[in-house]
Design goal:
The complex is a heterodimer. Chain A contains 16 helices and five strands. By secondary structure, chain A is mainly alpha-helical. Classes of the chains: A mainly alpha, B mainly alpha.
């Protein structure tokens, strides 16, 4: 029979063996992952790779706050996936001659967007912010549905104090986190496809194209309804602004404006042009009018310049496909998100640049206007909303909700 | 400090390292080191509240010493009354004062300003533990107590923030028996494996799922249409969330304590396998259930004074238990619902079962019928518990009632959200885990890390999985635990605190 000491010693030896193996596995796997992720991160820092790095879906919440500090751009885009897909940072930088960074993330909540903005305020080169308002003022996402938002990776904590141990936290995020593994796998896969000559739409969703087939019914209904749009009068008395419900996250928008105004950073706020045949176009009158009110109220005390665009009404872009003869859309993805071609058009309008060669003349004629610079902005927004409603009703003749 | 965070992992490595060094040179110093580390652990969140914790420890210790020094029963009773009142007063101020003002404003139609009071983390746990100590001392169950044993008993970091709520008879004898505070590799190994499993439950199994559950509650709070599927997805989904979150935390706490050679009481034992609500409460948050039973239910009369008195005691106990979780009427209703379930269970056993003798005998005689009856009982219990969860989780009573109404089919919005219909298939793995797999307490039954696990012979015969996969200090377990830890560690990018940290 073994004595207690012998059993104790055997247990101790087994314990040490267990711990050694446990530590060996943890350390060796972690070291391997860290090295691979570090190498991959270098790829992510290359300027040529930014289309893939910034447009890819996944752990953008972890990476973009780190990358934006690395690149220190002049213009940053904030918003959700509609903005992420619309602005290819490489293309739009080349087009405008300014250094852009696309900080938009899929499913961004208003709070996340504000915190991301606050985290970039100290970037010395930043002169302007392009802010997609759809998920802040129109269809607010109030629950974080996507992973990876970690305030400890932002420059400042929610109270505005510099984040403690920021460098160490970020180092961990890019070497040992699940975000690093997930993002690198996606990015490396896309880079490999690009280098192998695969078409961009195959490896980057932002560049896939909507197939017009399957929307013939919607196109016909819209074509039939279009001639009447301008002729129709308002259906009854229109609600005053005070009667329209204030967007639930208007306060987040105001806080963003205040922060940017304080830092003298120009704001280009906009609503996405959504495709009439695919999207509902959003009944955005309350959102657009309140957006106008909020921007107007902040402009007098703001050192920076504010701009406001509603691209979301029946125009040559949103009517894409209605009169087209081709099979695939140049402007929209298969899920109705705008492609980077639309981002260039919006950038042209925002920064007063000529549209790129080949842009249809009707786009130049009626695609967005800075509503803070026109007297009758409210009338225009009401008119646009009315036309949206009419088209929506035309698309759904069986019953409008 | 949250267990599932980089900061905590770094803290743990330092604490273990220093503890190991001290064990080799000054084995008497380990206890002091763990007290210091525990105070740092608590103060990391808000240093100011360290004073509150220290004040609570010193005040309670003084009262305990006062009781120990006196043979006068009335004086001892007075002291215990003062001590309990002080502890309840502390919780009442931090946790319930704002709720009280809000309720008074509502009832009296007044407009008294609601104070903004930050709830000190873990206050419900450490005050309950102190109340238990006071009562045990008053009853003569504590012979002596030293300040640093008291401080260790309350502040020991694995159980400080969210339990298990440890009783003095579980911890003080271990402290007295610990002559040399040294790391024992076998115990550290057990602790590391259990910690890894708990972390995996939290960061891999449930955290990624939480936004989908939140989306339904958010939709209900906005007043969006809620279908019957949405309602049940909300109840069942949150039931899984709170189970994996809190049982994961408890696994981690037990594992951490055992790294330093101390065993903590079991807190969860496959509660969703329970075939009655009574068994559910024997397996769910066991240390709180025990506290409520011993310090509320029994003093209220328990179950020995007839059915009516039992029901009154059950409702009272569970309502207070609900309120312990949070200052809000939805928590009270959650508690009352469970009180009602338990009452029905008692009434069933007292009144219905004796009259159904032949039927019960027939069911018991047939293995097939017995299995069917058992499955039906598990489903009924699970359904009742899931129904109550919406009151626990919903941000307000109106939202909870909307969801509960939808669960009962009272919502006429058959379309509702797609959220519930989309989510239900994703619940299947969770059902598989909670109904078909052994729990960590079963796998670690013989490790010595878990107190009272021997009282839970849920499966008469260990299953094949239990036999094949019970913990041992084998290379397979070492490599497997390490991989589980790695996956859980890598998944920690999206930090979310444990649910029970707020209670």
């Amino acid at each position: 029979m073994k004595s207690g000491d012998t059993i104790g010693n055997a247990q101790e030896q087994l314990g040490w063996r267990f711990l050694r193996l446990f530590a060996l596995v943890v350390i060796s796997v972690a070291a391997l992952v860290a090295v691979v992720n570090r190498v991959a991160y270098r790829q992510m820092l290359k300027a040529d790779n930014q289309t893939i790095v910034q447009l890819i879906d996944g752990w953008a919440r972890v990476y973009k706050p780190i990358l934006v500090d690395h690149f220190d751009p002049e213009i940053i885009v904030f918003g959700a996936s509609w903005a992420r897909d619309a602005f290819d940072p490489v293309t739009v930088s080349a087009f405008t001659g300014l250094h852009w960074f696309n900080h938009a993330v899929s499913g961004a909540t208003p709070y996340e967007t504000r915190r991301f903005v606050e985290s970039t305020l100290d970037d010395p080169n930043l002169t302007a912010v392009v802010l997609n308002l759809d998920t802040i003022l129109r269809s607010s996402i109030d629950v974080q549905m996507k992973y990876g938002f970690d305030e400890a990776l932002l420059d400042k904590d929610p109270q505005g104090r510099p984040t403690r141990w920021l460098k160490a936290r970020r180092e961990y995020a890019i070497t040992l986190s699940g975000a690093a593994i997930g993002t690198n796998l996606e990015v490396l896969k896309a880079l490999h496809a690009r280098d192998a000559g695969v078409d961009v739409s195959e490896y980057l969703e932002s560049y896939d194209r909507l197939d017009f087939r399957g929307y013939e019914t919607e196109f016909k209904l819209i074509r039939d309804a279009l001639p009447q749009l301008g002729a129709l009068a308002p259906a009854g008395e229109e609600p005053s602004l005070s009667a329209l419900p204030e967007p639930p996250y208007a306060e987040e928008f105001e806080r963003i404006l205040e922060a940017l105004c304080t830092m003298d950073i120009d704001v280009y706020a906009y609503f996405t042009p959504t495709m009439v045949a695919v999207e509902r176009l959003g009944r955005g009158l309350a959102a657009t009018l309140h957006g106008l009110r909020l921007l107007r109220s902040h402009q007098p005390g703001c050192r920076a310049r504010l701009h406001y665009y509603n691209f979301n009404y029946p125009n040559a872009v949103t009517l894409d496909g209605v009169f087209a003869t081709g099979r695939f859309s140049d402007l929209y993805r298969s899920d109705g998100h705008p492609r980077p071609t639309i981002g260039v058009l919006m950038a042209a309008r925002m920064f007063g640049l000529p549209f790129p060669d080949g842009t249809p003349p009707e786009v130049a004629g009626d695609f967005g206007v800075d509503l803070l610079k026109v007297e009758d902005a409210e009338r225009r927004l009401r008119e646009q909303a009315r036309r949206v409603e009419q088209l929506f009703a035309a698309r759904h003749p069986a019953g409008v909700q | 400090m949250v267990f599932a965070s980089q900061a905590f992992l770094a803290f743990l490595v330092v604490v273990l390292g220093v503890y190991w060094l001290l064990g080799r040179t000054r084995p008497w110093a380990g206890k002091a080191w763990l007290i210091i580390a525990s105070l740092f652990f608590y103060g990391y969140w808000a240093p100011a509240y360290l004073l509150l914790l220290a004040g609570s420890i010193i005040a309670n210790f003084t009262i305990v010493r006062g009781m120990l020094a006196s043979a006068n029963a009335r004086w001892r009773s007075l002291l215990v009354a003062i001590g309990v009142a002080l502890n309840i007063g502390l919780i009442a101020y931090y946790k319930y004062f704002a709720f009280l003002v809000e309720s008074l404003n509502f009832v009296a139609a007044t407009d008294v300003r609601v104070p903004e009071i930050v709830l000190p983390i873990g206050i419900s746990f450490f005050t309950f533990q102190q109340i238990g100590l006071l009562v045990d001392t008053w009853k003569g169950r504590v012979a002596s107590l030293r300040l640093w044993d008291h401080a260790f008993f309350i502040a020991f970091f694995p159980q400080l923030i969210a339990g298990p709520i440890v009783s003095q008879h579980e911890m003080l004898p271990q402290l007295a028996a610990m002559r040399r505070w040294m790391l024992e590799p076998g115990k550290v190994a057990v602790g590391a494996a259990l910690f890894s499993i708990g972390l995996f439950k939290k960061t891999v199994l449930i955290d990624p799922f939480v936004p989908h559950i939140d989306a339904i509650y958010s939709a209900a709070a906005r007043g969006d249409p809620i279908s019957i599927l949405d309602g049940w997805a909300a109840g069942i989904g949150y039931g899984f969330q709170v189970y994996f979150d809190f049982s994961g935390y408890s696994d981690m706490a037990i594992g951490l304590a055992f790294m330093f050679g101390l065993s903590l009481p079991l807190n969860f034992f496959s509660p969703y396998k329970a075939a009655s609500i009574r068994i559910f409460w024997r397996c769910w948050h066991v240390t709180l259930s025990r506290f409520l039973r011993n310090l509320l239910f029994v003093p209220m009369g328990g179950s020995r004074h007839g059915l009516a008195r039992t029901i009154a005691a059950l409702l009272g106990t569970m309502a207070i238990g609900g309120l312990w979780h949070g200052a809000g009427w939805n928590f009270v209703i959650w508690g009352l619902l469970h009180g009602a379930y338990l009452s029905v269970n008692h009434a069933w056993i007292d009144l219905a079962l004796p009259r159904a003798g032949p039927l019960v005998a027939r069911v018991r005689a047939s293995p097939a019928l017995r299995r069917m009856a058992h499955a039906a009982s598990v489903l009924l219990t699970f359904g009742a518990v899931s129904f109550a969860w919406v009151y626990f989780r919903a941000p307000d009573l109106e939202t909870a009632s909307r969801l509960a109404g939808a669960m009962l089919g009272l919502s006429d919005r058959a379309g509702g959200q797609r959220l519930g219909a989309d989510m239900l298939p994703t619940l299947l793995p969770y059902f598989l885990i909670v109904w078909c797999l052994p729990n960590p307490m079963q796998l670690f039954r013989s490790s010595g890390a878990i107190l009272h696990v021997e009282n839970y012979p849920i499966s008469r015969e260990p299953t094949l999985i239990e036999r094949r996969f019970s913990f041992s200090l084998s290379p397979g377990w070492a490599a497997g635990s390490a991989l589980v830890f790695l996956v859980a560690w890598f998944a920690m990018s999206n930090l979310s605190p444990f649910i029970y940290y707020q209670f």
